[in-house]
Amino acid sequence: MFRSDDDVYGVNKRELEVDSDSNEDPNRENLLDDSFEAWYDNIKETAGRKLELTNVPKENVFDAAVRLDEDQS
Length: 73
Description:
Elements: H1 26-54, H2 61-72
């Protein structure tokens, strides 16, 4: 049988450490945060551009083109 005293390394604790850096450097943490935010913004912009490129009208494109020509005159 397993006793809680046998958990020398703390494997069975409920706490979860997501940052394994024991010697935290605030500047490095800020750089990582900025880098992640820039990457995430870049992904959002790329997804937006993809959507603009693939966003086609659901109607017949030939009818839409005729209406565009009529609107310009």
